[in-house]
């Protein structure tokens, strides 16, 4: 049985030949770089890294050296951070204002001992030595909604 007219050989229909050419051209046109037809893969380069350093929170004056037996409490915006601190009797707390407005660190009535430190503007500090064990609830006298706690153990 002969499917196509010819001299004893099977001839490929023109539409099939055209379809194969179109597919080959479509595949050749997909992907790859334009121009020369060759592709290059970029070689990754090493990015130098530097060790972490202490970075001031808002301004250069916000960096402070914390002495031994001292805990640092930062005032950031309108919060004492950390808001809860536990220390041993005889240790100090150093408050550092990194905000753009004045603040205080003021004990509330009923605390084992009282303190009222004008921390001041950005970069200002206040230090208090806790010699009496107990729980100290304190706030900023200028912004009374700023609350925090220091627990002093024996």
Task: Outline the structure in words.
The chain is rod-shaped. A hairpin with an 8-residue loop joins strand 5 (103-107) and strand 6 (116-120). The chain has 1 helix and 9 strands. The model is unreliable at 47-61 (pLDDT under 50). It has a domain at 62-153: Immunoglobulin-like. By secondary structure, the chain is mainly beta. The strands form 2 sheets. Strands 3-9-8-5-6 form a 5-stranded mixed sheet, with no helix packed on it. 10% of the residues lie in helices and 32% in strands. The longest helix is centred in the first third of the chain and has 16 residues, at 14-29.
Short description:
10% of the residues lie in helices and 32% in strands. It is mainly beta and 154 residues long.
Keywords summarizing the entry:
154 residues, mainly beta, Immunoglobulin-like, five-stranded mixed β-sheet, 1 helix, rod-shaped
What is the CA-atom radius of gyration, in angstroms?
38 Å
Strand line-up in the sheet with most strands: 3-9-8-5-6
Strand content: 25-35%
Largest sheet: 5 strands, mixed
CATH homologous superfamily designation of the domain at 62-153 = Cupredoxins -  blue copper proteins
Topology, please?
Layout: H1 14-29, E1 70-76, E2 79-81, E3 84-88, E4 92-97, E5 103-107, E6 116-120, E7 125-129, E8 134-139, E9 147-153
Parallel strand pairs: 1-4, 3-9
Antiparallel strand pairs: 1-2, 4-7, 5-6, 5-8, 8-9
